[in-house]
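Incident log, structure service

09:12 report received: a user says their structure output differs between two submissions of the same chain.
09:20 pulled the input from the user's history:
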Amino acid sequence: MRSTRMLLSLCIVVMSPMTVRAWNDLGHMTVARIAYDQLSDAERSAIVGMLRPHPHLREILLKDRPAHVSEDEWLFMRAATWPDHVRPPRVSSHEPVKSHPIYRFHHATWHYADFEYQAGQRESTLPRKPLPHHPSLHNPADQTNIIEQLDHSYLIVRGTEREYSEPEIGLAPSELRAVRLCWLFHLIGDIHQPLHIATLTDHRVPQLQHGDEGGNKLAIRIDHSTAPRKLHAFWDDQLGTHANYNKVVSLAERLSRDPRLNPARTPAFQNHKLAWQFAEESYQIAKQSVYLDGHLQFALWSKVESHELRETDVPVISPQAITQAHEIAEGRIALAGFRLAERLKFIVFRDPSHGGSAQGMAAPVRRDRPPTRYVR
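09:34 re-ran on a clean worker, output below:
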């Protein structure tokens, strides 16, 4: 019954017309732009002021700024993409990642949580714990997951928790706040991508005993004329693949103005304020609309890559599933943008340097989950 109520509360988002990287730069910048449009000029200025001390301001955040776009506006949107741009390249570098001025800030496990979905299971409620990272990691900071780090980033930016992760603890306070603010922007987007929360396991298939890595081990095709794609990439690219400024602004405006996505009419926005609730939404969507309640037809990516399987033997996703995926992606991006705006407003409202006060304003702060929930 509880799962049914949850799905009903999500229907306006899920069904409205409309690498391990959750979304791509276009998706993340659209989330930020939707939030930007919800903020007042004073709130935007406050957030940009928090971002400017970032150690990668020039190298990454202001890179490729169009001539007609202000630094403040571009910085705000690009902040959401920063955690993806500190990923080390696949080819080895002469300089160790741990000492690299950019790549040392990469934390792969912060982008996702592997909550197990066993093909065909009936249960839609978020499992009590995600699967442990495989292989296990020695760095304590990287033994965490997206739920913990989204909460932690938010509370660090608000000044109510201390940093405990390398290399962040070596930063000046203003730099640290800027870095964690970028993580907040990014992880709000990531947690709304269903395949950053669920992982398909099948103990009958050796490659899937530890999960499908959020769809990265699965191959599908869009139609009979296209090459196979990873399931994860298919979902990341639902809004498009080129993050030019005009496209981001146009998409953000369309989604923001869509009455079906209006947060005042969206039960999920009204009722869910906590990171684990955002994750539970994504988990239910993954079960029902990504893995199709266990009926998704796929091939193993490893067999495509090794040419054990012909490309023409990779299953094709139905047109109905493709349409639904696009509608879901738009709804999730819009919801992420509205939720980011809510948190940014509260951060500014509480910031003493801007004369903030918490009086009369609801806080999307972290609360412990019920005892059956996973809390680090």
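09:41 both user submissions now match this output. Likely a transient worker issue. Closing.
09:42 reviewer note: The first strand starts at residue 115 and ends at 118. The beta strands are 115-118, 198-201, 218-220, 229-230, 299-300.
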